[in-house]
Amino acid sequence: MELNLSAVLDSWRFLLSGLGVTLLLAAGVTVLSLLAGTLLTLGRLYGPRWLSAIIVFYIDSMRAIPVLVVLVWVYFALPIATGLNLPPFWSALLSLSAHLAAYVAEVVRAGIQSVRPGQVRAGMALGMTRAQILRKIVMPQAVVRMLPAFGSLLSLAVKDTAIATVIAVPELMRRADAVAGQTYAPVEVFTTVMILYFLVIFPLTRGIDMIYRRVSFLGRS
Amino acid sequence: MTDTLAKLPQGSTLPDVVIEYRDVRKQYGEFVALAGVNLEVRRGQVVCLIGPSGSGKSTLLRCTNGLETMSSGEVYFDGMPLSKDPRKNRLIRQRMGMVFQNFELFPHKTALGNIMMGPMTVLGLSEEKARTRAEALLAKVGLSEKASNYPANLSGGQQQRVAIARALAMEPEVMLFDEPTSALDPETIGEVLNVMKRLADDGMTMVVVTHEMTFARRVADHVVVFANGQIVEQGRPEQIFDAPQTTRTRDFLSHLGWDG
């Protein structure tokens, strides 16, 4: 088999701008899902019982539905059901974030609950309020303890963007598909895409691991 | 003095009584942890609670600042009854320092940061004032050079001394110690007991749950012996250790190998 590298070299700008869309989408999903997941957990742990029940149902159902189904539903069914018509990028951002938020919520909950109850008692003994204890004692330790799990969630946030190809978001996978179709060089193009994803995600997860090893003592009570 | 006493309603606390326990009971399901405890702690007094494990002394200590709820009974602090709702006892907790068996230092804060936490978040002190206060307290417990160490880089004894300083930073009127040396290596117990001894010498009111009989004997003004959720004997340390009146006390002391 002969490699046709010109297929990749001729369209590298096109592919790289796809990678840009991928990274933008991944960054948006990361921020939104962290925010939403944290709020979900706080509502679940400290909110009224009815809110807690709704959140648990949301988390359970999101974890039981494939992310592809959520994406397709938001893009094709949501406009008909509600009249809310989102462009592809925003549909992808919304559905990927909504899906990942459920996993973030589980990680945040595990992190908060893993902080020793004695730490809360120590804060209470000082006369701190529940909110102060959560903000200044529990959360800082929980965040440190969550870091390794956040590493895997972050890699999920990047990888899952490839699914957005089915609703024609012009991200890396979509563009690669187009180039491969035009050049008849799927081996060269898709191998390049694999390498690109790896080059983005590998340093991310390794980097978080390294940070965790340096700061883990801050969460060890 | 007699005038003040006459004005006080029947059964109310005497002026120099800081903590008063009245018929305090605590039950966990079938298990009776406290079976009606009556006790008074006076200002400046060092009261040591001793007795076998599970006899209720730690439970009583945690009821003192409302970290544990009572099944029935009353605890008065400075004449005020503790609320049944633990959230409402925040103001009382601010006036009582507490030291735990497992230190419970905040791992994400340095020694100095641990001591500054209370003054800054609860008392609203500026960072500068809190720092000055924390530095003075670290010096008092002999750990000035460890100010920027995180708990992970302190020995057990050092952690417990920082924990004492953290409690003192709230300028409490009473200090509660819950088996402060039980989790320590034998060689670091002494440094913690010394800090506690100095605190007692300074006139701090202290309630100490301890298994350190030598400390109780040397430092306590009043020793209270617990068994099965009840006080079986109390009095001056010489009385408790040299001439125990009850079999329970004698059994407990001989169990520890105490020979007077």
TrEMBL record, chain A:
One MF annotation (Gene Ontology) recorded for this entry: transmembrane transporter activity
Keyword Transmembrane helix attached: yes
Residue ranges occupied by any ABC transmembrane type-1 domain in the UniProt entry: 19-205
Domain of life of the native organism: Bacteria
Its membrane topology: Multi-pass membrane protein
Main location: membrane
Name under which the protein is recorded: Polar amino acid transport system permease protein
Family: Belongs to the binding-protein-dependent transport system permease family. HisMQ subfamily.
Record key words, sorted: Amino-acid transport, Cell membrane, Membrane, Transmembrane, Transmembrane helix, Transport
Protein location: Cell inner membrane; Cell membrane
GO CC annotation: ATP-binding cassette (ABC) transporter complex
InterPro entries: AA_ABC_transptr_permease_3TM, ArtM/GltK/GlnP/TcyL/YhdX-like, MetI-like, MetI-like_sf
Record carries keyword Cell membrane: yes
Organism phylogeny: Bacteria, Pseudomonadati, Pseudomonadota, Alphaproteobacteria, Hyphomicrobiales
GO biological process, one term: amino acid transport
A Pfam match: BPD_transp_1
Membrane-traversing stretches: 12-42, 54-76, 88-108, 142-169, 189-208
UniProtKB/TrEMBL annotation, chain B:
Molecular-function GO term, any one: ATP binding
Keywords: Amino-acid transport, ATP-binding, Cell membrane, Membrane, Nucleotide-binding, Transport
SMART domains to which the protein is assigned, alphabetical: AAA
UniProt domain ABC transporter: residue ranges: 19-253
Top-level taxonomic group: Bacteria
InterPro entries on file: AAA+_ATPase, ABC_ATPase_HisP-typ, ABC_transporter-like_ATP-bd, ABC_transporter-like_CS, MetN_ABC_transporter-like, P-loop_NTPase
One Pfam family named in its UniProt record: ABC_tran
This protein's record includes keyword Cell membrane: yes
Compartments, record wording: Cell membrane
Gene3D superfamilies given in the database record: P-loop containing nucleotide triphosphate hydrolases
Cellular component annotations (GO), alphabetically ordered: plasma membrane
UniProt membrane topology term: Peripheral membrane protein
PANTHER family linked: AMINO ACID IMPORT ATP-BINDING PROTEIN, GLUTAMATE_ASPARTATE IMPORT ATP-BINDING PROTEIN GLTL
Family from the record: Belongs to the ABC transporter superfamily.
Protein name: Polar amino acid transport system ATP-binding protein
Species this protein is from: Mycoplana azooxidifex
